[in-house]
Amino acid sequence: MGKLVRQCAVLFLFMTVVTGVLYPLITTGLARAMFSGEANGSLVRKDGRVIGSALVGQAFTEAKYFWSRPSATSPGPDNGASSSGSNLGPTHPALTDAAKQRMAALRAADPTNTRPVPVDLVTASGSGLDPEISPAAAEYQVGRVARARGLDPAKVREVVAANTRGRQLGVLGEPRVNVLELNLALDGLR
Hints:
Blueprint: H1 2-34, H2 36-39, E1 43-46, E2 49-53, H3 93-109, E3 132-133, H4 135-149, H5 153-162, E4 164-165, E5 176-178, H6 179-187
Antiparallel strand pairs: 1-2, 3-5, 4-5
Helix pairs in contact: 4-5
């Protein structure tokens, strides 16, 4: 019996070292060597300092910036440590009220815009951290951003088009615009 217990203990320690130490170290090392940016959080830097991640949405509230999707994380919006959706169904009154308030805020920020508000500007994503909006949501905001920056709307549309990503492999997902990268590109205009 003692021999069996000793064999089990040795096997347990061996597997702990292999699967709990060696494997994670090797895969992390390979990931950092082959995909450095992605393995380190897809961090976005400006002037040498980290200003965000291309994978996590951020709240932009100034008129000169494109606004992200609403965030449903807690205790506050865009909390990367607390990914969550609102878990409200499509007929829940609180979801309807929140969407109406968000539409009113968008209309107040750009009263001359009479187009329908794209759904991704008034509803949070499943994770509550979506860093991207649809090209329609970006187009909806072009007028406000162009006026606030004193730019020709055609120039702003060019920047949106340059920052629009297509479907993955040509068939997966939808075209999308990363809001942080788009706003940085606008900041880079002279």
